[in-house]
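1st attempt posting a full record on here, be nice pls
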Amino acid sequence: MRRPFRRRSHPRTLPIRRWLALALVATVVAPFVVTAIVGLSQFFPTLHAQDQAPQIVRAGAARWSDPAWQAATRARLVPYAVDFVLVERGHTVFRTSRDPLAGTSASNTRSVQEVVVGGAQRQIAYIYTGGGPNGSIWFIPLVLFGTLILTLAAIAWFLRLTLIGPLAAASDATRRIAAGELTIELPTSRVREVAQLNAAFLEMSAELRTSLERQAAIEEERRLFVSAIAHDLRTPLFSLRGYLEGLEQGVATTPQKVAHYIQVCREKADALERLIADLFAYAKVEYLEGTMQRAPLDLGILLCKVVDGRQREAETNGVTLEIDGPPGACPVEGDEHLLGRAVENLLDNALRYTPPGGRIEVRWDHHGDLAEFAVADTGPGVAPHDLPHLFEPMYRADPSRSRDTGGTGLGLAIARRIIRAHDGDLLTANQPTGGAVFTGSVPLLPKA
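the predicted structure (as tokens):
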């Protein structure tokens, strides 16, 4: 099983050109800086000791014959390429080396300095310096070459960590995405181009995963939708077929019974017509983005037109239909026909469930950058457990929203899709005084 990459916090990134420039500078500068530091640390103490040797020897003139002083001074100076010979009254009392000039050549010379102390002892010190730096000069190219190798190794490690590794991971991610594995993780990188590439891959993977999940949900909804359509079409067709067969077989023996059968057949045919019309409308709203014809319009005027067109139906049902809104224009941008269809569906729902003697109120206003409208009725309202599902296709709340009322279960779903296609939303709730209220909102048209 392939272990996923661990995502880390995003570090600061730089363009690849800048990283390459820094690598070039490091390749040139680092070896020389390290070599200079090592050289100074190696030779500066030697040069300092050689410079201080005459003062050290002169200061200890009274103890030249003391073995303890001789041993201490020798241990102090000889490691820094300083040899000395001490002479008193013409006799050598101490020398650090049998032959201080042994091993000297044209490329490795030593200098001698005579230090005369004087006095009754006629003390003279011969101090031999040099040969330390020249004898260790081979160490400089070794340090330079070693530092260069380490610098190149560090650059190679960095490039593998921030460039080669993430690119290889991105290449592997493409193969995994092609194989259908959309849950991927990629390492971070300090190279800006690589970090952006990996971020794009992760975003693409997330979008593909979301798209597939949405597609699966749509397919499931479509499957349930087709099942519900088949059931709803079968019910009136079954009744229509039964009554037609009754007419054909002479079951209706009186003119009144024949008229009743014909009336039932007409009602079932009307129900089929409403269902098919709603099905066509629902299928059409799935492609609203490509068919909408947006234009500036006044939401208040649109609501007044829709309400005026339904006044006669409301009066026939014994329902009072009122409209209320603030003075002045309420400008929005949208498809007048589709927005009118959404409001018509809300009024159909309200008229269907408002009993005679009830009241339906349509009102609108604007708040901030939104135009809001509401359709409120005095019907039985909506059961709390039905509220979250009321806008689902083919959903009917029982018992108040049953098939006996003639609804197809698509009107509210169509209304919400139309409102959302206009960048708004449609919500429902129960009023404290009873009845349901549907509240829609769409963006106001910005003022010129």
